[in-house]
Give the backbone structure.
Amino acid sequence: MEHIHYAIRDLAVLAEEIERQGHEILPLNIGDPLQFDFQTPSHMIEAVAKAMRDGKNGYAPSLGVAEAIEAVRGEAARKGIRSVQSVFITAGVSEAVDVSLTALVNPGESLLTPAPEYPLYSAVLAKLGATPNSYRLDEANAWQPDLDDLERRITPGTRAIVVINPNNPTGAVYAEKTLEAIAEFARRHKLIVFSDEIYDKLILDDEPHVSIAALAPDLPVVTFGGLSKSYLVPGWRVGWAIVSGEATAVKPYAEGVAKLLRARLSASHPQQYAVRAALEGPQDHLIEVREKLRRRRDLTVAWCERTPRVSCVSPRGAFYAFPRLEIKEPDEVFIRQLLRDQHVLVVHGSGFGEAPGTRHFRIVFLPDETMLTRAYECIGRMLERSH
C-alpha cells in the first residue's frame, strides 16, 4: 500500500477539511462534467429506466450483455478497428484497465507508461508488484511521445506500452505518424498496446481522432472506451475494452481476461443497456459539449499566456490543461498552499509525473467561464504574493 498513490483524490481530503471550516472550494480537480452545467442525454436515462422496469436487475453475463457488446463492436468498426477478437464490458474504464493489466503482467515485469500519465496505471502496477517504466511526453512538441526516449526505456521485462490519446492530463491529441511509429516499436519488441481512448469524441480542434488499433490490425491492442466522459454519466461506471490483433497471438490473453471477469461476476446490469442508446442514438449533445469546452479551453490558454510565471501548451482534446509553473518550491507545496489560502483545488503535476526540475499543475476546465475566471484570478494572486 505504500506505493499506491492517487493524487487527484488524495488532495480532495484536504479540500473537505477546508469546506468543513465554512469555505467555498473552487473545484478544478476532477473530470466529472455533471458537477457543472452538463446533463446526461435523456434517451440514455430512458434506456436504463426501461431495462430496470423490464427486470434487468440481476447478474449480467460476465463479459457484458449481448446488445452492449454488439454496439461496441459497431463502434470499433466506425473507428476502423479490424481483427476484433473480444469485447468486454466493465465497471468503468478503471476496471477494464485493472483486469487487462492483471491478465498480462507478472511481479517484477514492467509496462511503458507515459510521463505525465493518468495515475491509475501506476496504482494498478503497484498492486501487482510490477513496475511502471515512464517514457517522456515532449512538452516542446505539443506533448507528443518522445520516440527516442521510448526506445531507450525498453528492457527484457517490458510487456506492453500504454498510450493515452487524447491525453490526460495534457489534453494532447497524437499525430497519426506518431501512432504509426509507436505501433512499429510495439511490433518490433513484441509488446501489447493498451490504448486509452475514453476522450475520443472530445476533440476540440478540426482534426480526426485516429485509433492506433485501426493503423495496426495485426498488432495486439486493447482499446479502452466508455460512457463516462463523452456521454456524461461518470457515476454509471460503464466502460469497455476492445481486444484486436492476430487471433492466435491474442486468444490466450483474451481468455485470461475472461477468467478474471467471471471471477468478479458482472458489471452493473441495467446501465449496460445505455451503451447501444449512446453509441447508436442521437449525438446532438456532443456539439454543445465541444462548443463549451472550446470556449473554456480558449479562456484557460489566454489566462496562461498573460500570467507571469505560467505557460501552457494548448490542449486539443478532452477537458484538461497542464500549465507549467516557473516557481522554486515543489508544485505540490504550491498547490496545497493555493488550496489553503485561495480555496482553489487543482492537482499538482508531480502527481502525474513530469520531467525532473519542472513544475506543473492540472486544470479541469469543465466549470463555466465565470467560475474559471474567479479561480484563475485567485491563482494569479497567489503567484503574485508568493513570487
